[in-house]
Specification:
By secondary structure, the chain is α/β, with parallel strands linked by helices. The protein is built from 18 helices and nine strands. The termini are far apart. The chain binds iron/sulfur cluster (SF4) (2 copies). The site of one iron/sulfur cluster has 13 residues, from helix 5 and helix 6.
């Protein structure tokens, strides 16, 4: 039996979103974790539990927050919101997995979930003489933890900085003062620390006087545009693919006839499903003369998740991975390169390529554009 106070707590934390669900099961049937053989999640069952105030939340830490299930929900339930609410309950009841708690300590102490030192955050930009955003610049380039602390992604960041310079953009970064955007904290259900972090970050961003925040990761961009916006952020926010596409439209960037080879596009969930379809990504790539794009079986709003969102990057999972399957899909297009615009996707696809011996280059869009810019 469920007592009323427990029911109220569960339904409040899940925003009553689960109440719309009429238990058809389409979400469970379409969740890619199920058909990939990864540790799965019974989404329909979770919705029922949220409705009646039960919080036994088996599988909620498996969810990548990819939103693919929401595409097929006939009741337009905000399923990810329910899952995040249930996670908050688990966190408050001290039932969050140990690895998630350890990751949170890294953010409390060092401002990033990867255990890197604060003083190493800006290493990617050594020698580039990028302005300190606190001294005033039109654009605040928000780097994000994933790319800042993964050496394999430093080249992609440097390419983006180079493209901004070529287009004459006045930009700066927060250097080692930058802190996590809080997305992993939100996904962990740590609501109280998230409030502090977001409030501090908004004050830091607004103090720079920048007109636009350009985020390297679509996860950070989504946090700023949706979560920070509701809490007072006033500065315009764009993912870098959208910002670069605007520069192309204004004639500030153009591309040479490329020997790009055949490429395919892996749409990050946080650009496609969360932010409207990945149109900027396609538009900007199609502005390279002669480019040959081979679309994958699932693309745009139906793109298949790489499996790294929702804090899955911090937990170990057994068996075949979503990114393994995605790399197979990419290979079957006959492309030589798979492009993406998200550090999480980039890390997962690269690893799956290596571990499965798939001879397909994984490249960040910023790097690819820099190779082809005039
Ligand atoms: S698809 Fe929507 S309505 Fe159907 S079970 Fe899932 S959440 Fe409920
Ligand atoms: S958001 Fe993605 S991983 Fe989570 S339940 Fe829905 S389809 Fe599955």
């Amino acid at each position: 039996m469920v007592d009323d106070s427990r029911w109220e707590k569960v339904t409040n934390l899940t925003g009553f979103d689960g109440n719309e669900c009429f238990q058809c099961g389409a979400c469970t049937a379409t969740c890619p974790l199920g058909y990939m053989g990864e540790e799965t999640i019974d989404t329909r069952n979770l919705m029922r539990r949220a409705q009646i105030g039960l919080d036994l939340s088996e599988g909620i830490w498996n969810c990548s927050t990819c939103k693919l299930c929401e595409n097929s929900c006939p009741r337009q339930v905000n399923i990810v919101n329910v899952i995040r609410g249930l996670r908050q309950l688990e966190f408050e009841d001290r039932k969050a997995p140990d690895k998630i708690v350890a990751m949170l300590w890294d953010i409390y102490e060092n401002g990033n979930p990867w255990g890197g030192k604060k003083s190493d955050r800006s290493k990617w930009s050594e020698g580039l003489q990028i302005k300190d955003a606190d001294n005033g610049s039109d654009v605040l380039l928000y780097v994000g933890c994933d790319a800042a602390y993964n050496k394999n992604l430093h080249g992609s960041l440097r390419s983006l900085a180079d493209l901004l310079k070529k287009a004459g953009v006045d930009f700066g970064t927060l250097g080692n003062k930058e802190r996590c955007c809080g997305e992993p904290v939100r996904n962990a259900g740590e609501a109280y620390y998230l409030d502090d972090l977001v409030r501090d970050n908004i004050a830091t961003f607004e103090k720079t006087g920048a007109k636009t925040i350009v985020a390297f990761s679509p996860h950070c961009e989504h946090m700023f545009e949706k979560y920070y916006r509701e809490r007072g952020l006033k500065i315009e926010v764009k993912h870098y693919s959208e910002y670069l596409n605007d520069l192309v439209k204004k004639g500030k960037l153009s591309f040479k006839e490329g020997k790009t080879g055949k490429i395919t596009i892996h749409d990050p969930c946080y650009l496609s499903r969360y932010d409207g379809g990945g149109d900027d990504l396609r538009e900007i790539l199609h502005s390279i003369p002669g480019i040959e794009v081979k679309e994958m079986e699932s693309s745009g709003k139906n793109s298949l998740c790489c499996g790294g969102g929702g804090n899955r990057m911090f937990i170990d999972f057994e068996g075949k991975r979503l990114s393994d399957f995605r790399m197979e899909q990419a290979r079957s297009t006959g492309a030589e390169t798979v492009l993406t615009a998200c550090p999480v996707c980039n890390m997962n696809l690269t690893d799956s390529g290596k571990t499965n011996g798939i001879d397909l280059k994984v490249k960040e869009v910023s790097e690819f554009l820099e190779e082809n810019v005039k």
